[in-house]
Amino acid sequence: MKTIKLNNQDRAVGNIFCIGRNYTEHIKELHNATPEEPVVFLKPTSALSLTETPIILPDYSMDVQHECELVVYIDRNAECVKEQEALDYVGGYAVGLDLTARDVQSQCKQKGLPWTKAKGFRTSACVSDFIDSDQVVDIQSQYFGLRVNGQLRQHGYTADMMFTVAHIISYLSRVYGLAAGDLIYTGTPAGVAQLQSGDKLELLWADQIVAQFQVQ
Ligand code: MG
């Protein structure tokens, strides 16, 4: 069973939902079209990786990139939830990495194939410990980021999301249903770039380091 940490307790993880193309500047850097509804894909639970666990670059990719994202932990079952009530279903928030084999993803897109091999490999869903949602006053006014080898590589403001956390939860609850234990990666801001063996990564929430990873 895969778990995350919330309030120093292990919590079981169910589905891992990920949102693509949720920040305008990232859509531009990859020359993607702007979506009319959230772009959703899944990662297998086996891909989940907690702080201090080495990142494994898959040997079938020459271009694994970091996508630093706000991650949501759902702690109540949710079906057809209204946007106004959606945040009541959140147990906590974290900063994570949606690691992406960009070359493999491009091949998948060209062939019209699913992205699983590009997005779901071992250790591709990195995440920090979770902060209790009660301690976050306004989730749409948070700053997060990623330092690689001591240099700021990526940073984002949740205010810049095209689809808010509440909208995403409402949408997922209506289409798929959400269950206690599900995680949601909410999309990356601009600044995605390639990882190299030996890179040291620090995930930031405001000015605090909330997780550290090293690429094997
Ligand atoms: Mg992503």
Task: Characterise the protein shown here.
By secondary structure, the protein is mostly beta strands. It contains four helices and 17 strands. Strands 3, 4, 5, 7, 8, 10, 11 and 14 form an eight-stranded mixed sheet that branches. A four-stranded antiparallel sheet has the order 13-12-16-17, with no helix packed on it. A three-stranded antiparallel sheet has the order 9-6-15. The mean pLDDT is 97. The chain binds magnesium ion (MG). Magnesium ion is lined by residues 18, 20, 67, 69, 98, 185, 187-188.
Task: Give the distinct bound molecules.
Answer: magnesium ion
**Coarse shape:** globular
Please, how many helices?
Answer: 4
Helix content: 10-25%
**SS elements, strand count:** 17
Structural class: mainly beta
Distance between the termini: 24 Å
User: What is the typical, i.e. mean, pLDDT?
Assistant: 97
> What's the story with the biggest beta sheet?
8 strands, mixed
Write the layout of secondary structure elements.
Blueprint: E1 3-6, E2 9-12, E3 16-20, H1 24-29, E4 39-43, E5 48-50, E6 64-66, E7 68-74, E8 90-98, E9 100-101, H2 102-111, H3 116-119, E10 125-127, E11 131-132, E12 143-148, E13 151-157, H4 165-175, E14 183-185, E15 193-194, E16 200-205, E17 208-214
Parallel strand pairs: 3-14, 5-10
Antiparallel strand pairs: 1-2, 3-4, 6-9, 6-15, 7-8, 7-14, 8-10, 8-11, 12-13, 12-16, 16-17
The structure holds magnesium ion.
